[in-house]
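cron nightly-structures :: item 1 of 1
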Amino acid sequence: MRVVVADDAVLLREGVVRLLTENGHAVVAAVGDGPSLVQAILEHRPEVSIVDVRMPPSHTDEGARAAAELKHAHPELGVLVLSQHVETRHAVELVSLGGFGYLLKDRVLQVAEFLAAAERVAGGGSALDPKVVASLITRNNDDPLEELTMREREVLELMAEGLTNAGIAKRLCLSERTIEAHVRHVLMKLSVPETDDSNRRVLAVLAHLTAARQTE
């Protein structure tokens, strides 16, 4: 992949750059603020940009806003946002665009998962941090999620993260056919339409979880 990295924390930025380059990816620019990020995207046309959610000057949500603007201006660009804390509003809004990911920064330490998420986003898929998914799935006793078995909840979490059936099967050490059955049961219990498009599937699941959360 051709990658642009944007983070004002030099140590983290250089760490991500090194991780990517050591695994065969080309980091074409590494910057520390929003304007430099926009310029780097225009100049280098990367496949994916990895962006800190908080950047100068206010260190609030400049990174998230810049990422959303870039995605709208360049729909083909994959954007992976890194955040220090769980923040479901930005996470779901951004991931709903497709070709978008939202991970907590400690996920970078899980190198294989982090790289897989970046590659998935670069390819137009979605990636949502497990802790964000878990915060959406924490429900009250009247919610349809209560009907799910523990295994179905595991499958739902991985679906919401953006994994395909094959990816879920590998993560849970089960056959792909078994996962297909679990996915059918999950979608049926949540009244989510089945689809062969993994990105449409994750967006449907996220839409259900977000709508359910807003009614509490």
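cron nightly-structures :: done
The radius of gyration is 17 Å.
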